[in-house]
Amino acid sequence: MGLKWIDSREIALALIDAHPDVDPQQIHFVDLRDWILALDEFDDDPAHCGEKVLEAVQMCWMEEMD
Fold it and tell me: pLDDT tens digits for 8-30?
């Protein structure tokens, strides 16, 4: 079973692995969305993404970096 938009923390962990040198506070949501869609384990409808979903992923990413 792949990652879905609701899997914010798991997506954040996958992004940390894929982009270890990126500061999540500096990423644009357009880039964040593209990076999520590019994850091999991501398997959800791209149309179901919104700003709130991306904010949740970004917040989880920042929490995991601390």
Answer: 999 999 999 999 999 999 999 99
pLDDT at 66: 82
Task: Decide: pTM greater than 0.85.
Answer: yes
Upper half-sphere CA count for residue 3 (Cβ side, 13 Å): 20
**Whether residue 2 has pLDDT greater than 80:** yes
Closest CA to 54 of 64, 37, 23: 37
Cα distance between residue 53 and residue 58, in whole Å: 9
Tokens 């991501």 sit on residue: 42
Instruction: Reduce the DSSP state of residue 48 to 3 states and report it.
Output: helix
> Which domains are assigned to the chain?
8-65 (1.10.10.600)
